[in-house]
Amino acid sequence: MTAAPRVSVRNLTKVYRTRRGSHVALDNVSLDIDPAEFVVLLGPSGCGKTTLLRCIAGLEEPDSGEILIDGKVVFSSRDGIYVPPEKRNLSMVFQSYALWPHLSVLENVIYPIRNSGKSQREAAPLAQEALEKVGLGKFSAAYPGQLSGGQQQRVALARAIVSGDGLVLFDEPLSNLDAKVRERLRLELLSLQTQIGFAAVYVTHDQVEALALADRIAVMDVGTVAQIGAPEQIYDHPASRYVADFVGSANELEGIVLSVGAKLLVKTAFGEIESANFPASMSVGQKVAVMIRPEHCNVAALGESENLITGRLTRSLYLGAVRQHFLETDGGELLITTQAPVTADSDGTLTVTCASHRVHVFAQGA
Ligand SMILES: Nc1ncnc2c1ncn2[C@@H]1O[C@H](COP(=O)(O)OP(=O)(O)OP(=O)(O)O)[C@@H](O)[C@H]1O
User: Which residue range or ranges hold the ABC transporter domain (predicted)?
Assistant: First the structure.
């Protein structure tokens, strides 16, 4: 038997009404989050991820739909139920840390425990233990202003986990921190989550962060969930051009289907391209979008014949872990990435190949 979801969002719609008109921020969104699952809401600015998080938290009241936390209805438009945030048994971590500046680190963490009715004597050791867990045991007497951004976010994390709620909501918690601290905290957050076993809903527009943290990523597109799945599934099998484009980088070109079989043959500006990744409903003559990730293109070896594209190598950039190369072809520019340096032929051109199972084709407009 599988455990009941920690969070169930059912047919949630939220419309913001302003003097300039109304804006549908969430359009019939449904989503289940398992206990101890880490779900990342990913998408560009304005797609509705913060609104969804705030609706789960109870900071925003949806127009219609239902939200259940641990099987208990906390919002239902049909039954007129709206449980306020403090009664939803969840914690939140914000981008701005939201610590009390006049309280010590320990007192900041004690605060939510006291609010839940425990005495100071009961709360203090629990708060100290949470601070030890985030590596700040020695800083309990310090004030937030005396700590670095990363340390302040650790205090916020301690405060979120101390309540023992099974659900923690994160609103871009690492985006104010520099890259190194962000990477460190990502790892710490993951090990805390594994250790404690809370469910996490985490908002970000940073795809690397999403891929690194998530059990499942929900890619959002103007108020809807465009695709939800494990990071590998989202990256390797994007359900639409939008998802393919937003997660990872992609060369995109338009094409027309020439033949449909086990593989699809498409006429593009780069020449004829074969794909083994295409929707079932393709037909000859149909206009399509072809997507090839830069890292799936390799320099063609002698005798190679699959999906060859030749272009003039105009620039190679060394980026440390990878190298980026730009090929000017008759059909436009192609970006490829490699780990090893590449050398153009004596006429300045380079021929690359891309395996057909790495070429994605979508119906135009998908
Ligand atoms: N209080 C509000 N009043 C009116 N419109 C709002 C309000 N809050 C959000 N919106 C609009 O709803 C849409 C979704 O906003 P939301 O903040 O959920 O997006 P987001 O994906 O979290 O974006 P970001 O990454 O920029 O925070 C946006 O178009 C936004 O302008």
Answer: 7-247
Kindly report the length of the chain: 366
The ipTM, to two decimals, is 0.96
Looking at residue 330, its pLDDT comes to 87
Mean pLDDT, the chain, rounded, equals: 93
Q: Which of 76, 41, 71, 45 is nearest to 58 (CA)?
A: 76
Q: How far is the CA of 62 from the centre of ligand 1 (A)?
A: 13
Measured from the Cα of 41, ligand 1's closest atom is: 21
The partner residues of 273 in beta bridges, in order of sequence, read 266
Q: Taking the model in full, what pTM does it have?
A: 0.91
CA gap 289, 268 in Å, rounded: 9
- Could you read off the pLDDT of 128-182 as tens digits, one per residue? 999 998 899 999 999 999 999 999 999 999 999 888 888 999 999 998 888 888 9
Mutate to test the pocket of ligand 1, among 23, 29, 169 (most ligand atoms within 8 A of CB): 23
Instruction: Identify the residues whose C-beta falls under 6 Å from ligand 1.
Output: 16, 18, 23, 25, 43, 45-51, 205
Torsion sign across C-alpha atoms 63, 66, 67, 73: positive
Higher pLDDT, 9 or 97: 9
Are 28 and 183 a contacting pair, CB within 8 Å? no
Is the pLDDT reported for residue 194 higher than 70? Answer: yes
CB atoms within 10 A of CB 334: 22
Mutate to test the pocket of ligand 1, among 15, 19, 51, 220 (most ligand atoms within 8 A of CB): 51
Find out whether 158 and 109 touch, Cβ atoms under 8 Å: yes
Question: Residue 60 C-alpha to ligand 1 middle, in angstroms?
Answer: 11
Cα–ligand 1 centroid distance for 16 (angstroms)? 9
Closest among 296, 300, 293 to 355, alpha carbons compared: 296
